[in-house]
Design brief:
The structure is a homodimer. Chain A has helices at residues 11-22, 34-40, 55-60, 77-89, 102-110, 119-132, 162-165, 167-171, 218-227; strands at 3-7, 26-31, 46-49, 68-71, 95-98, 115-117, 136-141, 146-152, 174-186, 189-196, 211-217. By secondary structure, chain A is an alpha/beta fold. In chain A, the strands form two sheets. In chain A, strands 3-2-1-4-5-6 form a six-stranded parallel β-sheet, with helices on both faces. A five-stranded antiparallel β-sheet of chain A has the order 7-8-11-9-10. Chain A starts with a strand and ends with a helix. The structure holds adenosine-5'-triphosphate (2 copies).
Chain lengths: 229, 229
């Protein structure tokens, strides 16, 4: 069973600790603020109040036995650095820290911390992409300007068959799969439930409410969306 | 040309404003802290100090002309709510707000704000997934327990051909594409550059350093990784 420690129980640390615990991992949640410890103690294996800049306090919790430790402290960057240094001194197998900007990231990398996260920065970039291209609901960037995207069905191709739309011949795009809503009875009430419709075929008709999962070059996907707006 | 306003220039708001500006959008960056306005003013079209809870101040900036406005204020939730209410009163086409937790999200949705983001929460869940399954570098969740994943090549299949690995027959997984490093000369120096290797074929050999992009059910992908650890 995986053992993880999360240091810092703000919004970020809390969501990591809770998600890990929900998925069955053994979680040690740490914060120097007793209220944050209290708020999580029923949902994780162990919740402890301690100051992560105190290496003895960390050692007393057997933090060396952890598979990985996340330092999710936010505002106090000095505390992030000292906590990271303590964890390295205790030979923790895997240390993941938070950074608010490029300078902080640079310092952590120089210290040898290889996994650095900037939650607000990463989501900020994704949000900007979604603002610029609202029909792209999510995307996975790939090399050579390729990307996998999840897009709402452009109006111009709704109710047409895949053969008629000719993604590959006209746009050089490949369809991976389609997400579609089906009305089902859940708890006695009709509910819209989303499903994957398996391997799409030439005669598959695209509904206006479908979500298409595609792979292609950024500019080809952009062109496909704009031509069919 | 797209016009966006970003209210609140903490780490989150800053990365949204800067990414939008880098991609050519016209950005109005707003904060009630003059230092934050100063720090960004050379990188966006307009940077203005004002209090977003003051509807007259927002109106004076012609914020009604924006395609979308993002409220990226963090700690002060009351300010987020008042700013959102102001933007709705000014009939802004698209309002995106930040929320720190489920209760805040619920209140914003009850107000009719349809796009609510929790950057720390979203990344927290992704981080937890990456801790639980370290060979999964990134993933796109889909309905019916399917997912698209980016994984490092499991040792057990390195240097084998796709035909020999038989992803579909043995594991019910489909390969979307492969990311591979190639040595190229950049600025006169040999550099590892990552490329997509197009449509993988039956005789394609998988290198130990390849990154595989796959689609399949979560449990089948987990089994594939564990059998070939
Ligand atoms: N030295 C320390 N030892 C242990 N916990 C700490 C230490 N310093 C700060 N923390 C805790 O880290 C948590 C997160 O830090 P903080 O609230 O400063 O960041 P934040 O940016 O608001 O976080 P988030 O964005 O995750 O809500 C807080 O609960 C705080 O009590
Ligand atoms: N009423 C307001 N009008 C305009 N800007 C505001 C208002 N209230 C707060 N802000 C600004 O919003 C920005 C982000 O808020 P804050 O620093 O409280 O959140 P944060 O959680 O630290 O943000 P981040 O995680 O993005 O760094 C700050 O720069 C702050 O000056």
């Amino acid at each position: 069973r995986h053992k993880f420690a999360v240091i810092g129980l703000g919004v970020f640390g809390n969501s990591i600790a809770r998600t890990l615990a929900e998925r069955g991992a053994e979680v040690l949640a740490i914060d120097n603020d007793q209220e944050h410890v209290e708020a999580i103690k029923d949902d994780v294996a162990y919740a402890v109040q301690l100051d992560a800049t105190d290496i003895r306090a960390l050692e007393a919790q057997n933090i060396q036995d952890m598979d990985a430790v996340v330092v999710a402290i936010g505002e106090d960057f000095e505390a992030v650095l000292i906590a990271a240094a303590n964890l390295q001194e205790l030979n923790i197998k895997r240390v993941i820290t938070r950074a608010s900007n490029k300078q902080q990231r640079r310092i952590l990398e120089k210290m040898g911390v290889q996994e650095v996260l900037s939650p607000e920065g990463e989501v900020g970039t994704t949000v900007a992409e979604r603002l610029l291209q609202p029909s792209i609901r999510t995307f996975l960037p790939l090399p050579d300007n390729y990307e996998i995207v999840e897009i709402s069905t452009p109006k111009g191709i709704a109710n047409k068959s895949l053969a008629k739309i000719s993604l590959r011949e006209k746009y050089n795009i490949n369809m991976i799969t389609i997400k579609r809503f089906f009305e089902e009875i859940l708890d006695g009430k009709p509910t819209e439930v989303e499903h994957i419709i398996g391997v799409p075929k030439a005669d598959t008709i695209i509904y206006p409410t479908d979500i298409l999962i595609l792979i292609g070059k950024k500019q080809d996907i952009k062109r496909f969306i704009e031509i069919n707006r």
